[in-house]
Design goal:
mainly alpha; transmembrane helix; transmembrane; flat
Length: 219
């Protein structure tokens, strides 16, 4: 599915998910999302790692509600635990099968996100590797001088601020040289189409989810 349609579906299910207190629906959302990710050929190892990382958070929510909820402790504990997994898998349907560039460009094309926001976010993600390299250089240069930076030392953050300003200036020059102007649209050599049936599918799934929660009120 197109990332823009998945984004709308994620919001359409994710927002009601906050207010609907149903363990069954949380499990259904998680199961459908995992099946979709497997259909998109996301590696099972990646999904397993994602669930293992979220497991302590879900367990912590379960314990806190199980012992400290004001009413219906068992039900509330399972709701909050399964809701975390549902949110995680719901977000993964957008981020795992698609690249950051594909997501941002589709949001700009089909949902009219600001071009400035899109290219700013894309630049930030592309600079992650550069930031890691600069962080290592700061540490190594300090070690050469016989110093070791700690997280609470102001000198470390001063160096980081200086490097960030330099990177910001380089980024601004690069975007200007590529013809980027704030407030103006950008042309691209290829554009993903968003079929009407995907909008219909998003609407049907969202309405069905809310209707099941309201009409049947599953546990």
């Amino acid at each position: 599915m197109n990332p823009a349609a998945v984004f709308i579906l994620m919001l359409g299910i994710g927002i009601p998910l906050t207010f609907i207190k149903s363990v069954i629906l949380n499990v259904v959302v998680s199961s459908v999302c995992l099946a979709y990710l497997l259909f998109c050929k996301v590696k099972p190892k990646t999904l397993l790692t994602m669930l293992l990382v979220a497991l302590p958070l879900a367990f912590g929510s379960y314990v806190s509600q199980r012992f400290y909820a004001s009413h219906d402790q068992v039900h509330m504990a399972w709701i909050y635990a399964t809701r975390i997994i549902a949110y995680l898998t719901l977000g993964a349907t957008l981020t795992l099968p698609n690249s950051v560039e594909n997501i941002l460009f589709n949001l700009a094309d089909h949902l009219h996100f600001s071009e400035t926001f899109v290219y700013g976010m894309l630049s930030s993600f592309n600079m992650i590797h550069t930031i890691k390299v600069q962080w290592k250089r700061i540490r190594y240069s300090a070690l050469v001088r016989g110093e070791r930076y700690r997280l609470f030392q102001p000198a470390l953050y001063l160096r980081i601020i200086v490097v960030s300003l330099n990177l910001s200036g380089d980024l601004a020059q690069a975007m200007t040289s590529q013809g980027f102007s704030e407030g103006f649209s950008r042309s691209r050599y290829e554009k993903d189409e968003l079929p009407v049936w995907q909008w219909l599918l998003v609407s049907i799934l969202t309405v069905s989810y809310v209707a099941c929660a309201i009409i049947f009120k599953p546990w």
